[in-house]
Amino acid sequence: MEYKEVRGVGFRRKKVGSSQTFAALAVPNFRMYVTGAFVSNIGTWIQRVAQDWLVLQLSGGSAMAVGITTALQFLPAVLLSPWGGLLADRVDKRKLLILTQSWMAISALGLGALTVAGVAETWHVYLFAFIFGIGAALDAPARQAFVSEVAGREHLTNAIGLNSSSFNAARLIGPGIAGLTMASAGVGWAILTNAVSYLAFLVALSMLNRSELSRSEPVARAKGQLREGFSYVAQRADLLIALGVAFAVGTFGMNFQMTNALMVRGEFHLGAEAYGLLGSIMGIGSLLGALIAARRGKVPSLRFVVGAATVVGVIITVSGLAPNYLWYAISLPITGLVVLLTLTAANMYIQTSVDPQVRGRVMALYMTVLMGGTPIGAPLLGWLAEIFGPRASLIGGGLLQLLVIGLVILLVRRRAVAAAPVSQVDEETDVVDVEPADPDPADPDPAVPDPVGVSSSESSPAAPPRVILPTPPSRRPVPTR
Question: Where in the cell is it found (predicted)?
Fold first, then answer.
């Protein structure tokens, strides 16, 4: 299968649509979808807080046990997300989501029932975290790719921002409810609340108007399709950088449920309510970031993605130096804001720059690197916390994130230098853009996806990717145009 390049590795931004914050809500299907997802996401955040607190209670405050739980929950993302992306490209995404959401509801019900009965042990939490992770690994690629079907291509960037806003508005509400529920009724009832919350999303999926979904053509079963997705990404230096940045942030910069629990219990010596409050405080910044992303009228540049991720690493490192609970709490909304801007920028960049026929597989790789590094990062940061204290999980995580981002850019640039013809070097800059090939206006189904209807007065054939190629001034060749 041949694909046209939709976007190159350059940092130039292309205007893609309206900056109206809530434009995608005009689509009834998306409105139904995001409402159900909002209720379900509240339950998800309740369980995230409750599960980590439960592990601390059962293990006697072991940071390593929290890290192992987090690792087991995200390990299936490494193993199964690519297959989940292939499934999303092959089958009805709505039906796949109904299956995966039901799976996660049942796993939450099982852990909650054991906890309420008073028989839960640490190994039970490990087991159910892994079972839950299997459903999440297959769910995430389909959910990411399904946004374009419920909102339509013309609202895609806005829908991504609003979908993220729903998740982070839930983050603002969920941890606070979790803290109150745990303090008044117990951890088990908080987990059972999540099991019930899945009903809202399942009802929303069943009520969607299927005739109005902007469905992409399912990919027929064939050999080598999973490898085809990897090959598509491997040929795009810009996607390699974006995915590498997502890996760094997901592995070392997004362990907040664990690091917050460790700081509250081990450093500040406070209880469940203080822990739950931190999640809601952080959600303020995350929600603001999501709303800013929803208003964005341009696809963010790769330079923005890399720069924002670098800022995340710096802020996380600084937050580990907070002298008390108050200053630590003040740092969290800033962290949430920048993390959210980074992830939505990476998500928008990738979704709007790939061919629809491989979008499910590419988004599966995105979710794999974003969540799949957690089995590495969480136990490592938990180990650092046990050896050097809770602050080490933040300071070490921030510094490791910055190191990985630098290594990713260095390796991709070296690979680009080795692979690219010298004639592609731009004399004026060490970053050379590829403009997307404009689709033929007369073609009702252009091969190059036009997510929000950008038109151009010129049309040109798809160009090969031009790459980041740093050349010392003394060695720069004469550019060819």
Answer: Cell membrane
| CATH number of the structural domain spanning residue 363 | 1.20.1250.20
> Do residues 178 and 276 touch, judged by C-beta distance below 8 A?
yes
**For residue 435, is it within any domain?**
no
* AA letter at 268: F
Cβ-Cβ contacts under 8 Å for 69 (sequence gap 6 or more): 51, 52, 55, 125, 126, 129
**Residue 362 burial (10 A CB sphere; 0-12, 13-18, 19+):** buried
CB 405 within 8 A of CB 309: yes
Give me the number of domains the chain comprises. Answer: 1
Residue 426 has pLDDT above 50, yes or no: no
**Residue 434 region by backbone torsions, left for phi larger than 0, else alpha for psi between -120 and 50, else beta:** beta
Evaluate whether residue 215 is within a structural domain: no
User: What's the full length of the chain, in residues?
Assistant: 481
Domain extent at residue 45: 23-208+224-420
- DSSP for 179-198? HHHHHHT-HHHHHHHHHHHH
Surface-to-core class of residue 183, CB atoms within 10 Å of its CB (0-12 exposed, 13-18 middle, 19+ buried): middle
How far does Cα 155 stand from its chain's mean position? 19
- The DSSP secondary-structure symbol of 19 reads -
C-alpha to C-alpha distance for 247 and 241, rounded to whole angstroms: 10
The SS3 of residue 15 is: strand
- 103 in a domain, yes or no? yes
Residue 310 CB: number of other CB atoms within 10 A? 18
Helix (H, G, I), strand (E, B) or coil at 61: coil
HSE-up of residue 456 (Cα within 13 Å, Cβ side): 13
With CA atoms as reference, report the closest residue to 450 among 326, 311, 353: 353
* pLDDT per position as a tens digit, 296-336: 767 788 999 999 999 999 999 999 999 999 999 999 999 98
- Asked if residue 315 is part of any domain, the answer here is yes
Quick one: residue 152, left, alpha or beta (phi over 0 = left, psi -120 to 50 = alpha)?
A: left
Which token pair is 184?
């008044």
Interval 179-225: pLDDT, tens? 889 988 999 999 999 999 999 999 999 999 988 887 776 666 666 67
Q: What is the C-alpha R_g of the chain?
A: 22
The position carrying tokens 């900056």 is 19
CA angle 220, 225, 230 (to 5 degrees): 145
Cα–Cα dist 303/309, whole Å: 10
Least Cα distance to 187 among 75, 311, 276 occurs for 276
- Helix then strand count (H, E) for the chain reads 15, 0
